[in-house]
Design a protein that fits this description.
This protein is an alpha+beta fold. It folds into two domains: 114 residues, Double Stranded RNA Binding Domain (2-Layer Sandwich), CATH 3.30.160.360; 127 residues, SET domain (Beta-clip-like, Beta Complex), CATH 2.170.270. Helix content is 18%, strand content 25%. A hairpin with a 2-residue loop joins β2 and β3. The radius of gyration is 23 Å and the shape is elongated. The two termini are 39 Å apart. Its EC number is 2.1.1.364. Its main location: nucleus. Keywords: Chromatin regulator, Metal-binding, Methyltransferase, Nucleus, Phosphoprotein, Repeat, S-adenosyl-L-methionine, Transcription, Transcription regulation, Transferase, Zinc, Zinc-finger. One of its GO terms (cellular component) is nucleoplasm.
Length: 317
C-alpha cells in the first residue's frame, strides 16, 4: 500500500474512469480518455487510452497520474496556442483530478476499501464512512441478492429494553456512524460495522419504495429485461420494499448461514419499517450479515451460498 498513495489520493488497482476532454489532434473537438490504474512489479502504473473517431486508439502510460496526463496536456496546450483558441495552462491541472480520484463521491468509496489504514501519507477527507445520503445506484457486482424471485423474508422481532419507537429514532440519528460500505469478503459489496455494536441494537433500516406484490412482480420482469440486479424485501403478503433504484445501503448486506444480524418489522407512527438489528455483539470491522430465509427451490433454481460459515448450507434456497 505504501506505493499506491500520496498525500492527496489513493490509487486502487483496477480503478477505471472515462473522461471527455479536449482532443490532442483537433483544437475544437473533444474525445474520450479512458483512465486505468494498474500494477507492474509492485508499483502503480497509470494508463490512458485515447479513443477518438477517425483515429487509431492511442495508449499512454506513466508512473504517476501527472506523468501520463502531461503527455496529453502539452500537445493540447500547443494545439490551442497555435490556433488562437483559449489557452490551456497544464501546470495548474493535477493528474489525480483528471483521473477523477479526487472527486468527492469517488474519494468516499476509495476511503472505505479494506487496507486503506496503511496509507500513512494520505490525508483522509471522509474517514471510513463513505455512505451517501441520497439513494444509491444499483450494484452491478453480481451479488446473489440480484437473483430473481428470491425476496428476503422477515424474522420475528426480539424484545429490547427500550420501546421500538425510541430505538428507531436513535438508530435514524446514528446509523451513519454504525456502518461503512466496502468490498465484501462474501460477494460483491458489503456493509461493515464502523464501531463495536452491542447485542439487540438497531443498526440500519432497509429503505426503498413500498409497492404492492403485483407491482413487484411486474418490476422484477422489467429489471431482468434491463439486466439489473433485483433488490426487494417483502414486508408481508401484500407489500414489498423495492430498493433496486432508490434503495439505501442496507441492501448491500450479504446473506450468511451464521448471521450476526436479524430483520424485524417495527411499526413507527403507523408505518411498518424493516430494521436490521444485531443478534449478538458485533466487533468493529466485522461484516454485517443476516439469513435471507429464501424459499426452498428445486435444483435448477438453486442459489449458491458463499458465506463461508462452519454451518453453511451451501445453498441460499
Amino acid at each position: 500500500m505504501s506505493n499506491f498513495h500520496n498525500e492527496t489520493a489513493i490509487f486502487p488497482v483496477g480503478y477505471h474512469a472515462n473522461r471527455i476532454y479536449w482532443s490532442m489532434r483537433h483544437s475544437n473537438r473533444r474525445c474520450k480518455y479512458m483512465c486505468y490504474v494498474e500494477e507492474k512489479e509492485g508499483e502503480p502504473l497509470f494508463r490512458v487510452k485515447v479513443v477518438e473517431k477517425g483515429h487509431d486508439d492511442l495508449i499512454l502510460t506513466g508512473p504517476t497520474p501527472k506523468a501520463v496526463w502531461e503527455q496529453i496536456l502539452e500537445p493540447v496546450s500547443q494545439m490551442r496556442s497555435s490556433t488562437g483558441t483559449l489557452k490551456l495552462f497544464p501546470v495548474y491541472l493535477k493528474g489525480e483530478d483528471l483521473f477523477g480520484l479526487s472527486t468527492s463521491a469517488v474519494t468516499r468509496i476509495i476511503e472505505s476499501l479494506p487496507g486503506v489504514e496503511a496509507c500513512e501519507r494520505y490525508t483522509f477527507r471522509f474517514g471510513r464512512n463513505p455512505l451517501m445520503e441520497w439513494p444509491l445506484a444499483f450494484n452491478p457486482s453480481g451479488s446473489a441478492r440480484s437473483e430473481p424471485k428470491a425476496y428476503q423474508a422477515v424474522a420475528g422481532a426480539h424484545q429490547g429494553r427500550h420501546s421500538k419507537s425510541s430505538q428507531y429514532r436513535r438508530m435514524k440519528a446514528e446509523w451513519k456512524s454504525n456502518v461503512y460500505l466496502a468490498r465484501s469478503r462474501i460477494q460483491g459489496l458489503g456493509l461493515y460495522a464502523a464501531r463495536d455494536i452491542e447485542k439487540c441494537t438497531m443498526v440500519i433500516e432497509y429503505i426503498g419504495t413500498i409497492i404492492r406484490s403485483e407491482v413487484a412482480n411486474r418490476k422484477e420482469r422489467l429489471y431482468e429485461s434491463q439486466n439489473r440486479g433485483v433488490y426487494m424485501f417483502r414486508i408481508d403478503n401484500d407489500y414489498v420494499i423495492d430498493a433496486t433504484i432508490t434503495g439505501g445501503p442496507a441492501r448491500y448486506i450479504n446473506h450468511s448461514c451464521a448471521p450476526n444480524c436479524i430483520t424485524e418489522v417495527v411499526t413507527v407512527e403507523k408505518e411498518n419499517k424493516i430494521i436490521i438489528s444485531s443478534c449478538r455483539r458485533i466487533q468493529r470491522g466485522e461484516e454485517l450479515s443476516y439469513d435471507y430465509k429464501f424459499d426452498l427451490e428445486d435444483d435448477q433454481h438453486k442459489i449458491p451460498c458463499h458465506c463461508g460459515a462452519m454451518n453453511c448450507r451451501k445453498w441460499m434456497n
